[in-house]
């Protein structure tokens, strides 16, 4: 069985072939992304804001500016969001490097 998906923030497709032992790798990737996903899915504005922040920091967007939000985050939330953004960017780089060596 083959598993396929796209992680929007990563802008990378991923594929796992269970017969080649890759299902465990895909599951491990999902578990590493889980804190990011749980944080983002607390509120739609959080999801949009954190996705845009990642894409800005990766150079995809020229700005992480949003419309005036209805949800205002305190400094602790901002810090937590930045830590998750750092973690997911590191994960993106790992996946890219692994894909480049396989490809």
Protein described:
The protein has 103 residues and is mainly alpha-helical. The chain has one domain (2-102). Helices cover 58% and strands 12% of the residues. It has three helices and two strands. It has helices spanning 23-40, 44-57, 75-102; strands spanning 2-7, 12-17. It has a two-stranded antiparallel ribbon. The radius of gyration is 15 Å and the shape is elongated. The two termini are 20 Å apart.
Number of distinct helices? 3
N to C succession of SSEs: EEHHH
Helix share bin: 55-70%
Distance between the termini: 20 Å
Return Rg in Å: 15 Å
- Number of beta-strand segments: 2
Could you say how many structural domains there are in total?
1
The structure class reads mainly alpha
Strand content: 5-15%
> Widest sheet: strand order?
1-2
Most strands sheet: 2 strands, antiparallel
Short précis:
The protein has 103 residues and is mainly alpha-helical. It contains 3 helices and 2 strands, in the order E-E-H-H-H.
């Amino acid at each position: 069985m083959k598993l396929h998906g796209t992680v929007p923030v990563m802008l990378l497709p991923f594929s796992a072939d269970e017969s080649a032992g890759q299902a465990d790798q895909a599951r491990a990737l999902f578990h590493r992304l889980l804190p990011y996903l749980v944080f983002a899915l607390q509120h739609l504005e959080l999801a949009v804001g954190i996705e845009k922040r990642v894409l800005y920091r990766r150079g995809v967007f020229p700005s992480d500016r949003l419309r005036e939000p209805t949800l205002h985050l305190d400094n602790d939330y901002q810090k937590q969001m930045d830590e998750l953004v750092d973690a997911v960017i590191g994960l993106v780089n790992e996946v890219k490097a692994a894909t480049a060596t396989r490809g």
